[in-house]
Amino acid sequence: MSDPALPAARPTVDSRRLTAAPQPAHQRAPGGGADTATVFDIANVDVFYGSFHAVKNVNFTVAKNEITALIGPSGCGKSTLLRSLNRMNDLVPGARVAGTVAYRGKNIYDQGVDAVEVRRRIGMVFQKANPFPKSIFDNVAYGPRIHGVKRSELADIVEDSLKKAALWDEVKDKLKQSALALSGGQQQRLCIARTIALAPEVVLMDEPCSALDPIATARIEELMVDLAKQFTIVIVTHNMQQAARVSDKTAFFSTEVNELSDTRTGVLVEFDDTQRIFTTPSDERTENYVTGRFG
Ligand SMILES: Nc1ncnc2c1ncn2[C@@H]1O[C@H](COP(=O)(O)OP(=O)(O)OP(=O)(O)O)[C@@H](O)[C@H]1O
Rg (Cα) of the chain, in Å, rounded? Predict the structure, then answer.
């Protein structure tokens, strides 16, 4: 199912297995050997919920095969901005996005762009693992099935996606068992497999580790670094160490008080290489946040 209003989907790339110790993103060779083409160009983006101005005038770009982290104090609009990157905010009553979210040069909010196709190209993994009450196989096959993929191709897609999500070895003998019997960390990797089964180019992750223990978190972090060889990742995280460990670029958001309405609007304070944000940020607000003096 392709949308003529969107540029052609990327070709599928072969799966690569997880390596035991991932190289932190900022230590990988520049661009990781991949081209650094711009995937998103986010320009003058504002997001409103009814009359509430949640996020103001956001501008930054997301490069292919990089991990971009969105950090900042609670309520600064990280999740709101993330949801605006694949039109997930369309599903929130009263939400409105202004400005341009150009994906591969095309504004995803232009008339005629199919939001369902946008969400297939730009998948999303949520804070809390949300497997369907179905078998492991059917969870991963769900998306391809509803997109009309032939029955004969499903088993290969399920295996490939579970391998990419570093879950195959743990579940290959129990694909017919309920996904709800998996551990929290396994369920989150299953949700990642379910997302990548649709061969997206981008995976958005909204605090994917916040409900997991440190071991399961480390596993997902390894996985993210591995997945970035094939996918472009944007992650919201409360965990600054996580942003520092896995991401190439970091966007730091904060809030400004609107005197008249006594509400707070999220603003992008600084966007730069992750290493720079955590060592020599250019804005005092960023420095205060990353050194723990605020937030
Ligand atoms: N569905 C909604 N309707 C109305 N206001 C909303 C909605 N979702 C979020 N908001 C408001 O928008 C602002 C930004 O919220 P958002 O959840 O994007 O921030 P965040 O930085 O991701 O926060 P957290 O780190 O606590 O998850 C907050 O003031 C929040 O109350």
Answer: 19
Q: Is 181 helix (H, G, I), strand (E, B) or coil?
A: helix
Q: How far is the CA of 80 from the centre of ligand 1 (A)?
A: 6
Decide: 228 and 25 in contact? Cβ < 8 Å. yes
10-residue mean pLDDT profile of the chain (295 residues): values are 54 30 43 65 97 96 97 96 96 95 96 94 94 97 94 95 94 97 94 95 94 89 93 95 96 92 94 97 95 76
Index of the ligand 1 atom closest to the CA of residue 94: 3
Domain of residue 261, residue span:
38-290
Asked if residue 3 is part of any domain, the answer here is no
Residue 37 CA to ligand 1 centre (angstroms)? 30
* Contact present, 142 and 134 (Cβ < 8 Å): yes
Q: Is residue 29 part of a domain?
A: no
Q: What is the CATH number of the domain that holds 71?
A: 3.40.50.300
Give the mutation target among 70, 79, 124, 252 for probing the ligand 1 site: most ligand atoms within 8 A of CB. 79
- Does ligand 1 have an atom closer than 6 angstroms to the CB of 185? no
Torsional sign, CA 161, 165, 169, 175: negative
Residue 100 backbone phi and psi in degrees, to 5: -125, 125
How many distinct structural domains can be found in the chain? Answer: 1
Q: How many whole angstroms from 249 Cα to the centroid of ligand 1? A: 22
In a domain, 111, yes or no: yes
* pLDDT one-digit tens code per residue, 128-163: 999 999 999 999 999 999 989 999 999 999 999 999
Cβ(142) – ligand 1 distance below 6 Å: no
Q: Ligand 1 center to residue 136 CA distance, Å?
A: 32
